[in-house]
Design a protein that fits this description.
Blueprint: H1 2-5, H2 8-21, H3 30-33, H4 36-42, H5 50-55, H6 69-93, H7 100-118, H8 126-152, E1 156-157, E2 160-161, H9 164-170, H10 173-207, H11 213-224, H12 227-238, H13 243-252, H14 262-287, H15 290-298, H16 303-314, H17 316-332, H18 335-340, H19 347-356, H20 362-387, H21 409-436, E3 439-441, E4 445-448, H22 451-457, H23 466-496, H24 502-514, H25 517-527, E5 529-530, E6 533-534, H26 539-562, H27 567-575, H28 579-591, H29 593-609, H30 625-634, H31 638-676
Antiparallel strand pairs: 1-2, 3-4, 5-6
Helix pairs in contact: 2-7, 6-7, 7-8, 8-23, 8-24, 8-25, 10-14, 10-17, 10-21, 11-14, 12-14, 12-21, 14-17, 15-16, 17-20, 19-20, 20-25, 22-31, 23-26, 23-29, 24-26, 26-29, 27-28, 29-31, 30-31
């Protein structure tokens, strides 16, 4: 059977079957909702057209020739040229690719795999070659191509090429203002989140004993909370009708509007992004070997000197990583400034208004999106080149572990007080969110009611919030396994294999994280709203967006797990002629099950709560939970929005704790089994 799949005739016939049975051009209403006449008109064989030139070249692979290195190189050249021809000709002719072209791409991929295997690339391992080519295609179509599309669209006004309009847009006075606002907010949030994250990481690793569970809660909160729900909670506390604001106005002479603008955005972003900083810094602190501190103390260093000259320098890469990650996330978020910004505009909200507002302006949105992308990529490249090329190893080999040393008493007091304030503020914040979901009108009528939940879920499955919730679960459940699978394949190839372009592949894969969600959403509209790939308005584009945004999650989880598996396991399997496919799915995958399940759940939860990357992609037929909440916020229905956000938080927390319990029981069972043996 395996030998049969390596024959060109199989893939050529498969592509021709697709050409005959499926439309070569995209259908406006899909395969099942289109009429017979529309489907027939989309078939490539009904008349002499360009699509014949896409499929007929594959017939050359049916000509019998003796297999050789030269022939394999010619085949690769032909297949590469054919792929480029299909893509470029579809753009020029403005033909949106139909379902049959999927068969064509699969055939090109399979034939290219055979040619590369004959050239002994990757030791001739067809599965690894096919996986690598699939990953490259995925990155090209859904990362590189959309990024290029958003750049090109800056120079077009509709179909007219007007390069000078970029300068016209950049000369607008508001551009400098929103750029300055965005950078000032991002830098401030980066500093505050990193400081708070460091304080809490020090608490959980150097101070806490029985209260270390606080760190776990901190690591979960940003994942399960939709981005703008924190902003809504801050509004309930500190907004015009907030109970804290009433106190500040009555006793300290504050203005009712003191929150809205720079201050409110910074507070909400710091609350939302500090846990991300905490997770980065906690891992770095745990990796510092205690023996380096003990060595400092034996040389009569005091605790302040040990921290300043030993711990802090070793934390520099993690601190920089934390700052840069938080800055990127702050720059990309438009929902919090939408709720708390007032007249304080940032780049992300301006892009949102250009796309979703009354004045549709793709050129201005693309220009601002490119500016935002340049900032994010610059930060990402600095992080990748600077941190990635430095070693901060404290101990190599096996050694005495030592005991973690206490922090200076003054520092401990500051950290504990900061954490106490933070915990109290968050308890009140989330308490306000949940309590506010049961009130008639926050700030006006605090009467308890269930009307908000009845409006959401009491009108049947075809109305209210049910359709958006069900569709969100379907989209997230579809995206999560794909994310975990591709993350595993990318991790296995980059960790276990050596090949040219490996660093480039790693960089492009992690680029998914660097591209701001707002920019990703706009780029998908521009790239997939016309020929050659038309996906706008479909559920597929939402799933693909979720997959690409969360792929680094699956990849990092798999890389971390593979780092703990000895290569000899793979080598033993391969030496028994199991092949890479069986090795991955019967040896590596079972051993990585906890890590991949964690990535699966994390990807699912992140997909459920994402907003910036998909808000531009949803339609009335593909509405998701976060876009539904955002619409309620825009309509001023804060009670309904908060109620829906509360439901999402509770459901996501339940899923995470259930998963944690299942994985914990699995590990305990394995441990007991080992002891019995």
């Amino acid at each position: 059977m395996q030998h049969f799949f390596t024959r060109p005739i199989f893939w050529v016939i498969l592509s021709l079957i697709g050409f005959i049975c499926l439309p070569s051009k995209a259908l406006d209403y899909g395969l099942f909702d289109s009429t017979q006449d529309e489907i027939l008109a989309a078939m490539g064989w009904t008349n002499l057209n360009l699509t014949w030139a896409w499929f007929l070249p594959l017939l050359a692979f049916l000509v019998p020739f003796k297999q050789s290195v030269q022939r394999s190189k010619i085949e690769l050249l032909l297949l590469g040229s054919l792929f480029i021809f299909v893509f470029v000709s579809a753009i020029i002719a403005k033909i949106s690719l139909g379902y049959s072209t999927l068969f064509l791409i699969v055939a090109i991929l399979a034939l290219s795999t055979n040619a590369l295997a004959n050239l002994k690339i990757m030791q001739g391992d067809r599965f690894i070659i096919a996986a690598l080519l699939s990953i490259i295609l995925l990155i090209f179509f859904f990362i590189v191509y959309p990024t290029i599309a958003i750049f090109i669209s800056m120079f077009y006004d509709g179909d007219e090429f007007i390069p000078s309009q970029v300068l016209t847009i950049l000369q607008q006075p508001y551009v400098l203002r929103v750029v300055t606002n965005s950078l000032s907010v991002a830098a401030t949030v980066g500093i505050l989140s990193t400081l708070f994250g460091l304080a809490f990481a020090l608490y959980t690793t150097r101070i806490a004993q029985r209260t270390a569970f606080i760190g776990k809660i901190f690591s979960i909160l940003p994942i399960v909370t939709p981005p703008f729900v924190v902003g809504l909670g801050v509004t309930l506390m500190l907004g015009r009708s907030g109970y804290v604001t009433e106190f500040l106005v009555d006793y300290l002479g504050f203005s009712n509007n003191w929150l809205y603008g720079f201050t409110g955005i910074v507070i909400a972003h710091t609350l939302a992004l500090t846990p991300m900083s905490f997770m980065i810094l906690e891992g770095a602190l745990k990796s510092i070997h205690p023996s380096v501190e003990e060595a400092a103390y034996t040389l009569r260093s005091n605790r302040y000197q040990a921290f300043a000259h030993i711990i802090f320098p070793l934390l520099k890469p993690a601190l920089a990583n934390s700052f840069l990650v938080v800055v990127i996330q702050s720059l990309a978020d438009f929902s919090t400034p939408l709720v708390l910004g007032g007249s304080f505009d940032v780049i992300a909200t301006q892009i949102y208004f250009y796309i979703a507002g009354s004045q549709l302006d793709y050129a201005s949105a693309s220009t601002l999106g490119t500016i935002l992308l340049v900032f994010s990529l610059a930060i990402f490249v600095i992080q990748y080149l600077w941190i990635g090329n430095r070693s901060y190893v404290t101990v190599s080999g096996k050694s005495y572990r030592g005991d973690v040393q206490e922090l200076p008493s003054g520092m401990k007091a500051v950290i504990i007080c900061s954490l106490a304030f933070w915990v109290l503020f968050n308890v009140v914040l989330y308490g306000s969110i949940f309590y506010g979901s049961f009130t008639v009108n926050w700030g006006v009528d605090y009467t308890l009611t269930l009307n908000n939940y009845i409006n959401l879920f009491g009108q049947g499955f075809s109305d209210g919030a049910w359709p958006s919730l069900i569709q969100t679960v379907i989209f997230a459940a579809s995206a999560a396994p794909i994310t975990a699978l591709f993350g595993l394949l990318i991790a296995y190839i980059t960790v276990r294999r050596e090949f040219k372009g490996k660093k480039t592949l790693e960089f492009l894969t992690l680029l998914c994280f660097a591209v701001p969600g707002t920019v990703a959403g706009v780029s998908y509209i521009l790239a997939f709203n016309d020929a050659p790939i038309y996906l706008t308005g479909t559920g597929m584009i939402i799933v693909l967006s979720m997959v690409m945004r969360n792929m680094p999650v699956g990849m990092r989880a798999a890389i971390a797990g593979l780092g703990q598996l000895d290569k000899s396991l793979d080598e033993a399997s391969l030496s028994l002629k199991a092949g890479s496919f069986k090795t991955i799915f019967f040896i590596v995958l079972p051993l990585l099950k906890p890590a991949l399940l964690s990535a699966l759940v994390t990807s699912f939860v992140r997909a459920m709560t994402t907003v910036s990357a998909i808000v531009f992609l949803v339609t009335a037929d593909t509405r998701v939970a976060t876009s539904y909440i955002l619409n309620r916020v825009e309509d001023g229905e804060y009670g309904v929005a908060i109620a829906y956000g509360s439901i999402l938080i509770v459901v996501m927390m339940a899923i995470i704790f259930l998963f944690d319990w299942i994985v914990g029981d699995t590990r305990i069972a394995r441990s007991k089994a080992k002891k019995m043996n």
